[in-house]
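G., before I forget:
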Amino acid sequence: MEAAVQAGDDNQRLGDSELVQRVQSGDVHSFAELVRRYQDRIFNTCRQICPSPEDAADVTQDAFLKAYRSIGSFSGQSGFHTWIYRIAVNTAISERRRTRLRFVASLDDADDGGSPLVDRVPDTRTETTDEAIGRSEMAGFVEQALRDLESQHRSVVVLRDIEDLDYREIADILEIPIGTVKSRVHRARVALREAVERQCKENGSASSGIVS
Amino acid sequence: MSMEHDKLSEQLSAYLDGALDERERADVEKRIESEAEVRTELARLRETIAWTKNLPHASAPDSVLANVLTRIKTESEIVGHRQPMTDTRNRWKRLRTMTTIAACLMVAVGLTIWGAMYSTRELFVAVGNSVEKSSTSPTTRDDVDVPQYSPAADQLHADSSRPESAVPKGLPTAQPAGDRSPADKSFAVESMSAVRGRIAATHEDASESPDAADVDLLEDKFDSLLFRALHDTDMSSGAISENTATMQRRDRPDERTAMIAKKRRFSRKIVVEIASTDEDDVWLTLERLRPFLANHNFADRSESRMTTTQRRDRSRGREVDRSEFDYRLRLSENELTNLVLALEGDDRDQRRIELSDEETILASDWSSTRNVLGLPDRVTRDRGELKQRLSGEGAEPTASLAEPENRIDKVGLEESSDRKPSRQLAAGREQRKIESNRPSWLGIVGELKGITGWRERESEDIRVTIRIRLIEREPDEQSPGTLVPDLSKNPQ
């Protein structure tokens, strides 16, 4: 037990590349450290792509497992975080496509054990004067707008504006040219804005503060 | 919105991201200072970015790390060791490169004995049931490069009468679909987890095969589920495995056969073909296919077919017949809808599969299902375009095939890098097949290939190909009923 704790402490001081090397030589503790380092960011990214937190958690797990299984082929040309993001984003997009049916169904289906979208969006007809509710409402609109984006737009906007990755990193993760990242990021933002504005108009709220 | 405005807007976006070079930034700043409209646009973009930046950050559930480690441990225990795939791939890549060089050298110095070397061609021709009818003519090296396998001809239409001995050790004996219980009909969703360990084991096996690099696709995209199909159903065993066994028995290494075997690594080949008149079906099938394959016995809903094409034997200057064995599974629209429902039996929504009447109605309404699944509009548009192309006079088969294959890539299922040069050839061959054998085929909508390695004492490698086809019309009335039973009618 003490040895494991000691190994954990050692691992915390190591960089990603050293940890990867250790994993490649069979050290599972080092992989656990990599999971600890990146699980929140990966989960957060997946959360914006997958329809539900449960799916995002599953995808996060799957992404790390895939990474573990194929870490032998990881050459280190890109950073581990780029690589794991790539795996996670691809997995999340596939999962989202696969589970679209479940997600859409859950809108009208409150007893599926999850958190239907309709419950997360406040009833704006009665509570729009409350500022806190307004913020929550706006967050709900933005999340919904994000989910409604095309997957290629959603990926770039999540990686850029939520995960704060630069264009080069995004290009590496999505395996597209930087110029494409640049144009996609912009188009994604425009599409996102339009979607949010549309929702605000439809709900007759929260639009007053939007720059027009 | 003008193009100039679009460009400026994009520049503003990049400006906010700090992604402009010095000169571009200076230009943008100049315009920001001088134009109120630009300032407004900048403010709008800034606000949009703030919306997403201000979304609450979620932390991963505590269970993530624990679950990952548990699964690693479980898989490792099954595999028998804890180490992930190491650099065996690189090692095998190097070995493969060296093998290729060695092979080339052997070819260079041994041309005179080449014919004699191929006198061992029976190795590839299975037990007396020659795939290449010109059995007296030696095979050329070109022929060797063409992926093929050679099941015994008299077994091609005898799935149900496969000899028990044809099933390799470790594979369960196929259960006839008619004997399946309703519990089986729930598509053994539990087996998703139950066989996970076995999948992991196959991962490891695959990683140690000389062509381990080619297994990437399988691991990431197929998630080894196709491999499960080899274990859980008999669709891959029988003739194919017997064929392999035959090869194995005959493959008693002398130097010549060993070299050929390396070039023709995939001693077993499985082709699964899904045909539908609706391209949406086809797309959906791609999405849903893997677990279905893994859990079902397709023996009584498939059609085995031998197709023969001619290849030019360059060294002999004459045509050589080459036959291929296809395993085809046909699904009508209704059947495919049922299949989708069946596949939805996975995890939390299993109740959806145990069909209430309402859900049955939903599922039977294909357009609703398609809408719910959010299949993109372009599928339909492309479908029209595809039809137009393929039905047009003098349509180029390769041109027609290229785009669908790309689209398949877009849905996340990639073609293996293996034998890419043969794609065009394969396309041409497919087209010939279409013309000669099945005029109703519109063409290949997509093809995905997964290469895996599987070892059981002796090295055996399996090539799995799934072809997704769009057909012009439903198969004949009697045909689909016998080939593909309606899945909603559970055999008792």
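Chain A touches chain B through 70 residues (CB under 8 Å). Residues 178-203 of chain A form the longest helix (26 residues).

More on Monday.
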